[in-house]
Design a protein that fits this description.
2 copies of one chain form a homodimer.
Chain A: E1 22-25, E2 30-32, H1 35-38, E3 67-72, E4 78-81, H2 82-87, E5 91-98, H3 104-110, E6 123-132, H4 133-139, E7 155-160, E8 173-177, H5 178-181, E9 189-194, E10 197-198, E11 208-210, E12 223-229, H6 236-239, E13 268-271, E14 277-280, E15 283-292, E16 299-305, E17 313-314, E18 316-318, E19 338-346, E20 350-358, E21 383-389, H7 390-396
Parallel strand pairs in A: 3-12, 14-21
Antiparallel strand pairs in A: 1-2, 3-4, 5-6, 6-9, 7-8, 7-12, 9-10, 9-11, 13-15, 15-19, 16-17, 16-20, 18-19, 20-21
InterPro entries (chains A, B): Ig_E-set (IPR014756), MoCF_OxRdtse_dimer (IPR005066), Mopterin_OxRdtase_euk (IPR008335), OxRdtase_Mopterin-bd_dom (IPR000572), OxRdtase_Mopterin-bd_sf (IPR036374), OxRdtase_Mopterin_BS (IPR022407)
Cofactor (chains A, B): Mo-molybdopterin
Keywords (chains A, B): Heme, Iron, Metal-binding, Molybdenum, NAD, Oxidoreductase
């Protein structure tokens, strides 16, 4: 270990955070950007990027003695230093990481769910720099495109150095299937850079995993170990959390083992230029936000309705400012969100709805009720905001 | 060419078909099984499997002179006989092929669409036997996992020997991305068997392509050519059909080039033990059908509602009779549908709704209106059937 281990309640040395963040929990620190900050740029500044933690932020400042242990069902276990990782070919992958709990607060309004409350900004889009996990695994003798090793390994487990509360089983852990990990085209990274800078402590310094197209919970920070294992990781956050149950399951009848850990996520969009309720002067209103989908599926279209979903009009989509988004273009950032913008003329009180369709023609559900689940994950229902003209808003006060 | 070419209106020598098929168009022949026939078995009998054609069925009976030409942007063009293909390792892949127009008739009830009308049975699940396309391409010098060749090839085009009407550009053609074609795990086959028997004429004898997880229109039958090309196929069925437009686009404002050819398809389910309207005697009613999703995403759950979608209960899912379906199980048939069954107690007139959720938490849309498109493809809205008690049905007559 290359730094002082911090007990699960030692929050004395947390990093300094940007004052504009919306803090949803202080210890462990969980915070998101404001809506307007989030979509001000295609690449999310590090300071404004989703902070999602289950314990204190580790301090790993003795880089000379830091290493990642690679073991489990492998012939040649290894200890790789940061320099070993940096000697592998470096890739820059622009990928959006979204917490499975994004938009949980809204789901809780339908029926109470458990978990940290999140508005619509529990995600961020960054350019991650690092080695491909497939190259790291090749170093220790696991070839590209291996689904099962000779010794029966089928999953790759990542273990953090962080300290989660005891009931959550110590260090944070997660796994992904070996075939995913060893597929160079899946762009799974062992990353040491974020937006061209050295990874910050809040985001996993010195090394983290980035699994594009998959819920954020599998992109383990402050990497301590990588293990090839036979079955999927048995850690708390794989087996007792981040699983999607039907609306009929509640805390009195849940059987965790009946569902698999969530990986891929469905198409999502949200309006970020407006809050849930807005006071406006009638006239032109900008409707802007983000849309994304899991599994590398691009966004096919983003649509806006002002009549309750009866009719829809398209919004302009873009990636970098001025660079139009081309659905199906293999050179585009397939793991990244698209931003959208449109201007509508508002005469009176209006509800604005956004929904997106991905390249697989997958859609967002109209209502939250059919996807409600007790842990409040994957809320991807149509996103609705209300505009109240100043006159009517006053009459409400 | 290893048989007599048949003009686009020469329907004199069509194969004999099963008398129970529901015929949606005679020339070209388009037919589907009845609902009950379709879900009577996990593997769809060849005779009852969706027949989807754009021209007369070719006759390729001189196998000694039959070959597939492989060319385009390759260093070593080749002509492969059926025996050449059979000498490659043989794979059996159980995959459901679904026509993008499945459930089109239902979409047309919301607002008229163009195209052959289909009930809910424009699909079938078969075990396809053949060589992997990735192995065929390796034979001619294109390695596994190639996204682009040295000469700039990025797509693989399949050309049939069939003769579509002139306005549809002659032989049927389609392409898939090269990275997909050269990925052995994608299980794209050059197939010569269906359910353990030699491919029948109606299904592509002597050779067809099977692209699992993708709309049926890309699985070209009666294979004549395989070409490595720079851009995606420019044929009619790629560029002027099988694209998904938003509901706001109609025949007077369509710009075909603004959308990409559909590949992946979204989560789908339908009830097949019942017709749209059923006369019943109050009591136990079996609700059975199929659920599937594109891109190799498995089915997470199938749910039934009898109160308009307010509450839902789960249905039993299975693959082979007696073999339960395990979501996330990598040993299961990832490209295949699951069948489901439940029994409900019906007291009076009832609407039964089914919907499914896939492993990526993708959902089916509640209403057809938000996914309506002028070509009537990808109708995946909640499937609804009505039960009318005998007494009430009589009163309607």
């Amino acid at each position: 270990m290359a730094g002082a281990l911090r007990g699960p309640s030692d929050y004395a040395q947390e990093p300094t955070r940007h004052p504009s963040l919306r803090i949803n929990a202080k210890e462990p620190f969980n915070a998101e950007a404001t809506r307007r900050d989030l979509v001000a740029s295609y690449i999310t500044p590090v300071d404004l990027f989703l902070k999602r933690n289950h314990g204190p932020i580790p301090i790993l400042d003795d880089i000379a003695s830091y290493y990642v242990s690679i073991g489990g069902l492998v012939d040649r276990p290894a200890k790789l230093t940061l320099d070993d990782i940096k000697r592998l070919p470096k890739y820059n992958v622009t990928a959006t990481l979204q917490c499975a709990g994004n938009r949980r607060t809204e789901m809780s309004k339908s029926r109470k769910v458990r978990g940290v409350g999140w508005d619509v900004c529990a995600l961020g889009n960054a350019t991650w720099g690092g080695a491909k996990l497939s190259d790291v695994l090749q170093l220790i003798g696991v070839p590209y495109h291996t689904e099962i090793t000779l010794s029966g390994g089928k999953h790759v487990e990542f273990t953090s150095v962080d300290q989660c509360p005891e009931e959550k089983g110590g260090p944070y852990k997660a796994s992904i299937p070996l075939g995913h990990a060893t597929n160079p085209a899946a762009d799974v990274l062992v990353a040491y850079e974020m937006n061209g800078e050295v990874l910050k402590r809040d985001h996993g310094y010195p090394l983290r995993v980035v699994v594009p197209g998959v819920i954020g919970a599998r992109s383990v920070k402050w990497l301590n170990r990588i293990d090839i294992i036979e079955e999927e990781c048995q850690g708390f956050f794989m087996q007792k959390d981040y699983k999607m149950f039907p609306p009929s399951v509640d805390w009195d009848n849940i059987v965790w083992s009946t569902r698999k850990p969530q990986m891929d996520y469905p198409v999502q969009s949200a309006i970020c230029s407006l809050e849930d309720t807005n006071a406006i002067i009638p006239g032109e209103v900008t409707v802007a936000g983000y849309a994304l989908s899991g599994g590398g599926r691009g966004i096919e279209r983003v649509e806006i309705s002002t009549d309750g979903g009866r009719t829809w009009s398209g919004a302009v989509r873009y990636q970098k400012e001025g660079v139009p988004y081309v659905p199906g273009d293999v050179t585009s950032d397939k793991w990244a969100w698209v931003l959208f913008k449109t201007v509508i003329d508002v005469r009176g009180d209006t509800e604005i709805i956004v929904k997106a369709v991905d390249s697989g023609a997958n859609v967002q559900p109209e209502s939250v009720d059919t996807i409600w689940n007790l842990r409040g994950i994957l809320n991807t229902c149509w996103h609705r905001v209300r505009l109240l003209t100043i006159h009517n808003l006053r009459s409400l006060l």
